[in-house]
Amino acid sequence: MKINVAAVGLAHPFEVGYDQAPALLNQTAEQLAAIGVDCVNTGVIMHDLKTVQDAVKALKAVDADVLLICVATWSEDHHLLDLLGYVDKPVILRAYPARDTGSLCCVHQIGAVFTNIGKGYEFVFGKPEDPACAQKVKDIAVPYALASTMQNLRVGALGGRVKGMTEIAYDEFAIKQYLGARIVNLDETEMTSKVAALTDEEADKLLEENKDVLRPCKVTSSKEGLRESIKYYAALKALCDEYELGALAVKCYTTYMGKVCLGYSLLAEEGITGACEGDVPNAITMKMLYELSGKPVNNTDLLDFNYDDNSILFAHCGSSGFSIAEGEIELAPVRLAETGVCCKFLMKPGKVTAVDICGNGDNFRMSVMVGDAIPCGMEFPGNPMTVKFEKPLDQINEEIMEYGSGHHWMIAYGDHSEALRRFCKIKGMNYYQI
After folding, report:
1. For the whole prediction, is pTM greater than 0.85?
2. Domain holding 415: CATH number?
């Protein structure tokens, strides 16, 4: 996910430090670029109507998620109001320590003005070369970038939801309002007709094309199971291309158990997330976490508590991306149905964030847990992950029930709780930290 920031200067020609405004703007932008932020430096120092118009022209030429206003000196605050009349984006006010420039007091002044007119803003104070300030700007910008990314997401829902899982019924309006994504409702025959059109010879060719990924795996599925599963991969990929989908939710239980799992694993390495059992909100959750972590996301159920080490076992049938595997990968028949191909492997250790999104209307909500994935065995046939938490398990259990969190937990590597909290604040969505 790209983090797009556009930097503009603000200063008054009469004030001390005006001549240093371009250098402050350049240093600030360079620090952001050094930590991976795509920062467009407009090079404009606003101080009159013409320079405001120059800034507007520069900003309209870029697709920024956030405007970084680098306040070099005290300045007339109406220049910023004029700018936002043409380019109304989220704003970070950047102030610099100095006794004579009035940078800080100007930002305080602007903050009061913004509060009076109901314009939200963020604030960063420190030297232009301070990497901690650049990191704070990045941390603020990430949820805005995520919101922009999600606004263009299309999610394929194939076949509806699983019978008996009323919890995962999805509210398309709430999803659009709070997450930005659009649901593309597809009949499952659009998938199965593509599968039926593929020959066994074409399936074998597809298996050969994916040999670098599949050949190192231990295979306990049948040849027929492999052929069928790779056909479903091709069908899902074709639907993603046709409808420009970035995420999928197939009603796999029970008809397509073991049929779409291999496809999900392969698509995960291409940045397309796939949720089990027709759970559309969690397909979107996986995409959000993929954008934040840059890695495939593990689709799980919360299964068991271990009070000895305060850990929880999460697992599902086996459809995660191969790049987060720890050790051997087995292509095996799915549990219960004992058909098809699931990708069974243990998960790498590390800091992780587990997220569930469910609900409807104003009760649309996100629940988040952060812990440490620790080594475990194949305690459940699929992609088991044991996560150790600091909070007592009984308290976690009580809070899950208190908040009405669902039973599906999407787990990504890294601690993304702050970005998700900020995202929910931006979107006006309920957020629960467990």
Report:
1. yes
2. 3.20.14
Please tell me whether residues 379 and 237 are part of one structural domain: yes
What single string gives the DSSP state of each residue in 2-63?
Answer: --EEEEEEE--TTSTTGGGHHHHHHHHHHHHHHTT-EEEEEEEEE-SHHHHHHHHHHHHTS-
* Residue 5: partners with Cβ closer than 8 Å, 6 or more residues away: 32, 37, 38, 39, 40, 64, 65, 66, 67, 68, 92, 137, 141
Say if 19 falls within a structural domain.
yes
Over the stretch 348-385, which tens digit does the pLDDT of each residue have? Answer: 999 999 999 999 999 999 999 999 999 999 999 999 99
Q: Are residues 253 and 276 in the same domain?
A: yes
Residue 63 falls inside a structural domain = yes
End of a domain among 141, 168, 192? Answer: 141
Q: What are the pLDDT digits (tens) for 15-67?
A: 999 999 999 999 999 999 999 999 999 999 999 999 999 999 999 999 899 99
